Structure formats: structure tokens, C-alpha cells
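User: I'm putting together a teaching handout on how multi-component assemblies are represented. Below are the sequence lines for each component of a complex, exactly as they appear in our records. Could you produce the 3D structure of the whole assembly as C-alpha cells, so the students can see both representations side by side? Please keep the chain order the same as the input.
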Amino acid sequence: MGVSFVKVYKANCNKLFLDNMVNENLVKNVVKEPYKYGFVTDIETEKIAKGLNEDIIRLISQKKEEPKYLLDFRLKAFRKWQKMNEPDWAGLGYKQIDYQDIIYYSAPKQKEKISSLDEVDPKLLETFDKLGIPLTEQKKLTNVAVDAVFDSVSIATTFREELAEHGVIFCSISEAVKNHSDLIEQYLGTVVPASDNYFAALNSAVFSDGSFVYIPKGVTCPMDLSSYFRINSGDSGQFERTLIIAEESSSVSYLEGCTAPMFDTNTLHAAVVELIALDDATIKYSTVQNWYAGDEEGIGGIFNFVTKRGKCLGKRSKISWSQVETGSAITWKYPSCLLLGEESVGEFYSVALTNNLQQADTGTKMIHIGPKTKSTIVSKGISAGNSINSYRGLVKMGTKATGSRNYSQCDSMLIGDQASANTFPYIKSQQPNSEIEHEASTCRISEDQLFYLQSRGIEFEEAVSMMVSGFCRDVFNQLPMEFAAEADKLLALKLEGSVG
Amino acid sequence: MQSKMKESDPILEVENLSASTDNLPILKGVSLTIYPGEIHAIMGRNGCGKSTLSKIVAGHPSYNITNGDIKFLGQNINSLEPEERAQSGIFLGFQYPIEIPGVSNLEFLRVSTNARRKFLNKEELDTFDFEELVKEKLEIVKMDHAFLSRSVNQGFSGGEKKRNEILQMALLEPKIAILDETDSGLDIDALRIVASGIKKISSAETGIILITHYQRLLDEIEPNYVHVMSDGQIIKTGGSDLALELEKKGYEWTDNFTQET
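Assistant: Of course. Below is the structure of the complete assembly, with chains in the same order as your input.
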């Protein structure tokens, strides 16, 4: 007989104030960073009419030449979505989204069939170049294969032949629908069902593009795989869908980066990511999210409503999420793990930085279903300006999760006296023979710490950023090498400003 | 007897300095001049303003200078940021060194050393070159290499923290070092290590201010001058024998002194 208890508490654990700040203005300057990726690519695009109805969904499906099962999947999702309500439990304050005022398909105009990169519009290549993601043969990153997604479509995927030699499939999900339809039909929507939540249902109805990864049995993917998502249009939403399947004893490390131009309107981004790990497979999924966050007054910015979930289906399988969330006006995101396989492992490492009027509600769900499953959660929230940064996490031990363990640690750092941080850890256990541990460490950025670093010749900005990155170290250590450096730089940039 | 030292220009000149924090006056007209090669000791009861003086020279933002000047190598530094002062060669050894979680001691020392080197137009050191330099300096304070991989001062014992301060001083090679109660909380062995470290680092070109309560540090490092502070003022200045006299008679002895003008 299992003991059941539900413990929900709101803990303002570990709020750290950057107290008695030397100079309020200085701080304001320090956390102010101009957005570097705010440019718009001037390119002719093919857009469909605004609005959402069954005809629009049929049109999207038709444009993508999809098989019937996929159109049915979309329509079913749409009908469910229509009956659902937008969730408000996160208490995020934002202007109501008019779903009829969004363009659900936007693609840069280019030749119908592109056989090589030479045929890709140079403007697009230039855009990705500017974002630091060169795609051309001469310049492409040497150790990472990239799938570049521009608005609703995938532009190019590098290293495909090399990966194919190992049996690894890495392509846009639209291509996968055409060429690997059996896998799509077998797995799509099995981790995040269309009816899972409001935004997942919306995505299931209108998803445009995204990445598909398949790692065959026994293969260790020879290089990191990476998707880069770029929103370019101001009035179209981005609804990408990613599906990663790791067969028995395979492993892959996948990286994801995102940017968008600066518009004074809000752009909706509702993505779904599904991961499936079979026996002894490992998937490591890392995100650096730097969507446009809006300006200081909170005008513009991306609404980021994302459902990411991994299923540890196999024994001893492992799914590890690491994320650095710095952008978006609103972030609503809970990369989660369903731990079904015996001794499977779920991990979540997160750094979320909010500034100005940004709001982030992010965390994870670790659902322990199988026995001897293990999960680790390390979350670091940094809030500056007037932002709100919340950790929301669920750890659930099911009736069969005997001998399972969870360890959670969530720390918040507040910069200035206008920002706020919340922690909402939800714990549900139906299995007495399992362990759940929740911890919060204490550290503080104080005037004395800043003065100490400054009195050793370290500039104020660098001192703040050193301490912030020290605060995030546990998470940065989990990121792939190149990403860790980038994340560190990104945080420093966000925290640096025009002091002087 | 120290007249030969005074042929050169002073390193630090504190001129009639008054300062307050939260409108509470702490320093009430302090004057002090340090020439190259000199060691000054400042003694006095807790709360007399010794630590405040050191923090103000280093540029602590909590204090306002209400009157007077601080000159470093002839330049007024009243409005310089703490990091600018440090880069140009002012070093403050903290009475209570601050813990900085997550920031590795090695990285902290390297960034700080490079900030000083940049100012001196010296080449900045990469991780490998810095390792070499720091190894050499670790000898001075007899510190183990393992200290470098820990977070700055975190979990260090009192003595380890103080040695870490002297290690920083060794790396930064300041023109003037103000050591605020560097001897407090040290056992005899650690005190010897710290004192010999200070002596090794100092030279005929550098100045040192030792803020202390105890003669035992001054037994190891003999000062040229001893100043006694009380209520935000220097009330008596003498040679090293003044410290011995203080040790014998206690601060009560100084209660009748007023500021020497």
C-alpha cells in the first residue's frame, strides 16, 4: 500500500539581494545590453493570410505535401485546441494573444527544389553568417552539424553525407515526413500528445518546420548536432517541432540556439520538442535561448511558450536538458523527463536571466515511473531590472518507482531592488521507498564582494559578471564546451553595459 | 634619520582628510605622508577610524570625502574608482577577506594580475604563463597549489585567508600596500610566514602601512613611524619605540593626547 502525499509549497527560498548597491544607475547601466541580433533580413517571403481555421491548416499541410495521417494529426489537434483554454496558472501578465492576427506560415521565397547550398539565397546565408552560424562549405563550423531554420522553414543542414555514413539522420522535420515517414508516424506526438496543453495543441495543428534526428542502434553520433532558429518576420509566429530518437546504446548531443529581430510587436513562438531514448541510449539537449526580449519599457519581444519533453523509454537510458534562457519577453518552458525505463536518468540544468520587464516561468517535471530511476535538477535564476523570474518544478514518484531518487537545487539571485524571484517546487510521491531531496544554497552578491574584486583592479562590470558566472558554474559545467563559453559570454554581455 | 628616503617624491599623501558615512563623521582631519621605502604602523582602539582610512584610500564607495585630499604619486585620486586605484598600484589587504562563491581563486588572481599588468603596459598572461608566475609566488606565503582551484576565500581558515591576501599583494606588486590587521587571527607560525612574505615583497621603492593592534607583528617588521589614531584623528606619531610604549601602557595612556598640529 503506497503512502500518498502531496506537498505544494511556495518558497521564497534563497533570495539574494545585491543590497545597498553602490549606485542604482550604475546597476541599471550594467544590466542594460543592446540586443545584437535585432536586424531584419530584407527578403521576399511567401506568407499565407492571417488567421487560423481548418482551411489554413489544410493549406499548410498541402504546401508541405504531407501524407494524410499528418493532416489528420493536425486537424485533430486543432479541434482539441479549440476546446481548450489558454493556461493562466503561471500568473504571467501579458497582452492577450489574438490567434487570428497571426500568420501561421512564412517562408523565404526560393527555388522549389534546392540540391545544394549554392542555390540558397545568399541573403539567407549572410543572415546566418551574421549570427555566427556560417553554413557554406568553406566556412561551416567544423565540429558541429547545423540545421538552420528561418521563420517556418529549414534552410540548410550541414554535414548530412558525413552523418549518413554512420546511419545518423539529421534533417528538417518536413524532409523527414517525406523520407522517413514510418518513423514520424511511429513517434510523432508520443511524448507530447497533441492534447497535452494549449500551446502543444496549437503547435501540433500548425507546426511548420524543425529538426529531426535519428541515431541508429549502437551509434555514438560523431559530432554535435545543432539547430539554429531564426524568427525574421514580425507578424508570423514560429511553431517548430523537433523530434529526436536515440535507438538502443546510441548517444547524441544536440544544441539549439535562437534569435529574432527587434519588433515593437510581440511574436508568438510555440515549439514542441520530443525526445525518445531507448535502452542504454543517451540524449543531451542544450539550449541557448536569446530571442528578442523587448525594450526597457517592455514593448515588443517574443512570447516563448514551449513544451519540451523527453521519454526515457529504455532501461538505463538518460536524457539531460541544459538550458541558458536569456531572451524572450515571456518564457513559459518546462523541459521534462518521463522516466519509464528501469534505472533511467533525467537531468535538468538551467540558468535563466531576466532583465527589464521580462518574465520567466521555467523549470522541469521529473516523472519517476520505473524503479530505480534517478533525476537531478539544478536551477539558477538571476533577475535584474523589474523582471520576474520563477522556478516551477514537479517531482513525482509513481507507485512503481521503488528505490528512485531525486535531488533538486534551486537558487535565485536578485540584482537591484525591483526584481523578483519565486520558487514553486511541487512534490508528489506515491512511493515511500523513494527519496526526494530539495536544497537551496546561500550566496550573496554584496557591496563588499564587489568592492573586494574592484580593489584588485577588476572593473565593476567584470566583477558583477564574474560573480554571476560563478553563481551559474554548476550549470555551465554541464554545457558542451563551445556552448559554455558562448553562454558565459552571453550572460556577461547581458550584464555589461555602458558604464563609463 | 630617514632623511635620505625623503629625497624622492612621496608615494602617498593624505592631506587633512575628513570623511563620513551616512552623514556620520569618521575621519576628522587626517594627514599622513609615505615616502618610498617607508613602513608606517597605525595603531589605535577599535572604531578609531583606522580601517576606514584604509578603505577610503582604496576607494570604498560607502564613504564620502567631506574635506581634504588623497594624492598618489602626486596625483589627486579622490574621485578615482577602486579598480583604477588598484591598477595604478594601491593595495588594500583586508581585515576580513571576502568570500566569493563559484569564482575560482586562480581565475580571480589571473584577472586581477592582468588588470595591473595592463596598466603597467606589461603583457597580459595566459593561463599557462600565469600558472608559472603564481607557482613562484605561492612559495612566498607557503601556500599549497590546491588553494588555487577553490573558490575565492570560500571555506578558507582565517590564516589561509590572510595568506591569500599576501599572495595577491605579491602578484600585484603594488607601490603602496595598506595591510589592515593582517596579523589578527594568525598563530605564531602563520604570522612569521605572513611577515616574511611582506618583507620579501616590499622594497626601497614601495611603501607599507601596517594597521595593527599588536607589537608582535612590529617585532617582525620594524616600522619607521608609528601613528596612534583616536576618534578619527592621528593624535601621536613617533618611531618604533612608540609601539613598545603603547604595548606597555595601553591605549589609556594616549587618552590625554590631542591631535598634533
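A couple of points students might notice: Helices of chain B lie at 50-58, 82-88, 105-119, 127-141, 158-172, 188-201, 215-220, 240-249. The longest helix of chain B spans residues 105-119.
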